[in-house]
Q: What sequence folds into this?
């Protein structure tokens, strides 16, 4: 008789977090639980997300009931807006306070804001291991301090760990620039972490290739674990809701950050409407947060508000329970992303599964282009400019008309991009590697 293997998952962004990486963390722990592992998650408190970044409480119901979740307090002074608790220095000299705060944060680990969390996270990991011996730790970034806590447990108790980068630490995926030298404190930490890791995961091949060049000794332990769409979060096939008025309904779903080409998208939208490439009465609905935090970023909110007269409307964050309805209401979907060959997207997989035409408003060199390669209904831009956006939007009416004849192709493509299909090979491989301990 064998005993279940025990996975410890370390993640800052876990339900009810609304950050993009939360869906990957949720799917990961559910996949291990479904494979028969005991799973314990150590994450931040609910109040962290409710107070600072915004929360989607509907996600908590989707955590496998077999998963144990432990929450560790997380302090974020830089995001604290209650001035009654500010020190005299912060009130009198905010830049000086911010500089000293950053220096203090990076003493335990070189990551502003998150460095002080290392001690609490590592202590929680040791406590979990003491109560129920851990066979494998899987730490998800960002923040990358989760990697340090996994490394601490390995040093203390010999528990192997997997680093799930999602994106990158020393690589700016938008510019392609290296943000910290190999000899910096960040560089030394990353070299140590990668050297001792059992596996290292990335979301796409360009990011993995960059890291293989940096750390050739660990190349055979680096794997691409792509994102995907979650069957528990998206009901397919989607029923297309009737169009109540004239024109076409286009939609974008996702966090709008300063990296998203919102200005170019809106300018191109106006051009396409003005010259008739989009039929009169067409609308562009934006769903998601404006910025990284709970309070909408002012410049983004103003840009959207200014475009209301042109049929652009912002509906705010969309709970995961409402995502299927959001896609069902659209005739076509707009995928607007920041530029860079390393840039990937979790949302693109949902777009494919939704079976709608896609307007790809992003650098053609993005890794996302590979995901859309087999999609028969994509309007692509050659570069992200208003003129090119307008040209691509002008293809939408024909793509919408052709959509029914491609339904079977899109259904097959969507099936291949399920998130559980991306995770299954690594879950199985890790289980096989540890089977000897449980014989």
A:
């Amino acid at each position: 008789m064998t005993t279940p293997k025990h996975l410890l998952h370390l993640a800052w962004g876990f339900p009810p977090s609304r950050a993009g990486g939360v869906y990957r963390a949720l799917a990961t722990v559910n996949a291990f639980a479904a494979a028969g592992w005991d799973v314990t998650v150590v994450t931040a408190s609910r109040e962290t997300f409710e107070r600072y970044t915004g929360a989607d409480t509907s996600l908590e119901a989707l955590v496998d009931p077999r998963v144990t979740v432990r929450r560790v307090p997380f302090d974020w002074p830089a995001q604290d807006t209650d001035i009654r608790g500010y020190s005299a220095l912060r009130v009198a000299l905010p830049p000086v306070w911010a500089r000293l705060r950053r220096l203090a944060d990076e003493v335990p680990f070189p990551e502003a804001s998150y460095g002080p969390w290392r001690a609490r996270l590592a202590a929680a990991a040791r406590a979990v291991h003491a109560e129920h011996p851990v066979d494998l730790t899987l730490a998800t970034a960002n923040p990358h301090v989760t990697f340090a806590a996994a490394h601490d447990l390995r040093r203390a108790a010999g528990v192997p760990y997997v680093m799930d980068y999602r994106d990158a630490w020393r690589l700016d995926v938008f510019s392609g620039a290296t943000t910290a030298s190999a000899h910096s404190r960040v560089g030394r930490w990353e070299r140590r972490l990668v050297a001792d890791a059992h596996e290292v995961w990335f979301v796409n091949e360009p990011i993995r290739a960059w890291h293989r060049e940096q750390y050739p000794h660990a190349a055979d332990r680096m794997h691409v674990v792509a994102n995907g769409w979650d069957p528990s979060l998206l009901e397919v096939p989607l029923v297309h809701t009737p169009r109540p008025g004239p024109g076409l309904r286009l939609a974008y779903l996702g966090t709008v950050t300063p990296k998203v080409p919102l200005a170019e998208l809106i300018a191109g939208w106006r051009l396409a409407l003005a010259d008739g490439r989009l039929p009169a009465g067409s609308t562009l609905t934006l769903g998601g947060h404006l910025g990284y935090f709970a309070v909408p970023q002012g410049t983004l909110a103003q840009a959207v508000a200014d475009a209301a007269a042109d049929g652009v409307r912002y509906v705010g964050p969309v709970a995961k329970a409402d995502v299927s309805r959001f896609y069902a209401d659209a005739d076509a979907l707009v995928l607007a992303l920041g530029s860079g060959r390393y840039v990937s997207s979790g949302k693109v997989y949902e777009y494919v599964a939704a079976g709608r035409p896609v307007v790809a408003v992003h650098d053609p060199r993005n890794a996302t282009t590979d995901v859309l390669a087999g999609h028969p209904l994509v309007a692509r831009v050659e570069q992200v400019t208003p003129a090119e956006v307008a040209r691509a939007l002008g293809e939408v009416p024909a793509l919408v008309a052709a959509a029914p004849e491609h339904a079977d192709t899109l259904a097959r493509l969507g099936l291949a991009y399920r998130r559980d299909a991306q995770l299954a090979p690594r879950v199985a491989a890790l289980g096989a590697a540890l089977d000897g301990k449980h014989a």
